[in-house]
Amino acid sequence: MARTTLRFRLREMPVVGDALAAARRRTQRKGFPGSARYWEDVYATGGTSGPGSYGPHAEFKAQFINDFLARYEVRSVIEFGCGDGHQLGLINYANYVGIDVSETAIARCRSRYADDTSKQFFTSSEFATQRVARPEAALSLDVIFHLVERDVYATYLNELFAAAERFVLLFTSDTSDWPLQSSTAEVFHRPVKRDVATHFPNWRLIEEHKNPRRYRGDSTTGSYANFLLYARQEAPA
């Protein structure tokens, strides 16, 4: 398979006008420490990956992902932002690598799946030094709208789309579907479909699966996100 060499550069990213400026002011006002520090603090103080990884949300995602794995006979997966690993237990991965910025979350995952040799876990800094076989699919589930810093978002997409051989599966919001910004400092919605189409042309959106539990003011019962499935295309001769 040909590999795309296009990089998603920070200077290419359009500024989202007043919404972005407001988000910056909001995070500064609340003393937001940055997305990586925020999530390490959540896990270190006993928190979890949140309602999206538990209950009906997790069951819905697991059903879709298990179907995806079976339909396309995907046997190797890497997930960027694996969190505490609770949702992982519902999904039938044959070979799995989980990455997270939080050392505490990775420690929980290693403990939870200590006897499962089909799974490996690394912090983001550890993974940068690893030689891991390229998987068939890369996953991002309920992560992108938590990347409030523009440079972190750009770097994340670069790593995500460079990692997989065949597929990239996102469960994320997209501002073309959800134009309003969140009032919480740890959430910022972006035009993900537009950015992928612009900066990763070797990847084609082949499926969009709507989430039946749409957000209605309560994150325990609804979500901003839908599934977006991308397939790598051969580079032009």
What number is the mean pLDDT?
A: 84
Named CATH architecture: 3-Layer(aba) Sandwich
Largest sheet: 7 strands, mixed
How far the N terminus sits from the C terminus, by CA atoms, comes to 12 Å
Radius of gyration: 17 Å
CATH third-level topology: Rossmann fold
Note the beta-strand portion: 15-25%
Strand order of the largest sheet: 3-2-1-4-5-7-6
The helix content is 25-40%
Q: Could you say how many structural domains there are in total?
A: 1
Just give the CATH class: Alpha Beta
Q: Assign the CATH superfamily.
A: Vaccinia Virus protein VP39
Describe the structure.
There is one protein chain. This protein has 237 residues and is α/β, with parallel strands linked by helices. Helix content is 32%, strand content 17%. It contains 7 helices and 7 strands; from the N terminus they run H-H-H-E-E-H-E-H-E-H-E-H-E-E. The protein has helices spanning 17-29, 35-44, 55-71, 103-112, 124-127, 150-163, 192-199; strands spanning 76-80, 95-100, 119-123, 137-141, 167-172, 203-209, 226-232. It has a 7-stranded mixed beta sheet with strand order 3-2-1-4-5-7-6, sandwiched between helices. The chain starts with 16 loop residues before the first helix and ends in a 5-residue tail after the last strand. The model is unreliable at 1-6 and 10-21 (pLDDT under 50).
Task: Quickly list its features.
7 strands; 237 residues; globular; disordered N terminus; single chain; alpha/beta; Rossmann fold; 7 helices
Present the secondary structure layout.
Layout: H1 17-29, H2 35-44, H3 55-71, E1 76-80, E2 95-100, H4 103-112, E3 119-123, H5 124-127, E4 137-141, H6 150-163, E5 167-172, H7 192-199, E6 203-209, E7 226-232
Parallel strand pairs: 1-2, 1-4, 2-3, 4-5
Antiparallel strand pairs: 5-7, 6-7
